[in-house]
Amino acid sequence: MKACDIKKGNVVEHNGGVYQIRDIERSSPQGRGGNVKFRFTMYSVPGGNKLDLSVGGEDELKEVDLARRQATFSYKDGDAFVFMDDEDFTPYMLDADVVGDGAGYITDGLSGCYVQVIDDAPVGLQLPTSVVLEVVETPPELKGGTATKRPKPARLNTGIEIQVPEYIANGERVWVNTTTGEFGGRAD
């Protein structure tokens, strides 16, 4: 698989180890003959050791064959998140470092998740594109606030903070994009 085709969440093999891509930076040098470079922030699977890798856009990386099992979030066991397989009800326990920033989007009974499995061991989590969360704390709307497009901070029921439009009030349920962390509209 070419480096330019790799997306966040892909699992690749590098120097005999297996890594999950967590972040991608693309840089294209100015001027003639500049080749596009990709900088991947990867974490070893399992283990979670961080590795930064810079490659050219045409460089090849071997994608690892992994199973994706649809699962629903069940409960939290200490720092670990437990997901239940939607088909055969196998519990998958994922450590907080594997879930990473995605923890801020996980609510009770969240479905549409995919647990990534290599050799029967859960190694990664793919969240749905957007989730519904409740606003627990945000400043009140200013008079005439709907005339301007000023965003304001809002703390959600999972503890994360996002920017929302002025008209959103405490207690409202909103869609949040799990990839960008941006407000996506009212849920109800």
From TrEMBL:
GO terms for molecular function: translation elongation factor activity. The keyword Protein biosynthesis applies. InterPro entries: Elong-fact-P_C (IPR015365), NA-bd_OB-fold (IPR012340), Rib_uL2_dom2 (IPR014722), Transl_elong_fac_P/YeiP (IPR020599), Transl_elong_KOW-like (IPR013185), Transl_elong_p-like_YeiP (IPR011897), Transl_elong_P/YeiP_cen (IPR001059), Transl_elong_P/YeiP_CS (IPR013852). Residues 68-123 form the Translation elongation factor P/YeiP central domain. This is Elongation factor P-like protein. One of its GO terms (cellular component) is cytosol. Pfam families: EFP (PF01132), EFP_N (PF08207), Elong-fact-P_C (PF09285). Residues 131-186 form the Elongation factor P C-terminal domain. CDD domains: S1_EF-P_repeat_1, S1_EF-P_repeat_2. PANTHER family: ELONGATION FACTOR P (PTHR30053), TRANSLATION ELONGATION FACTOR KOW-LIKE DOMAIN-CONTAINING PROTEIN (PTHR30053:SF14). It comes from the Bacteria. PROSITE patterns: EFP (PS01275). Belongs to the elongation factor P family. Keywords: Elongation factor, Protein biosynthesis. One of its GO terms (biological process) is peptide biosynthetic process.
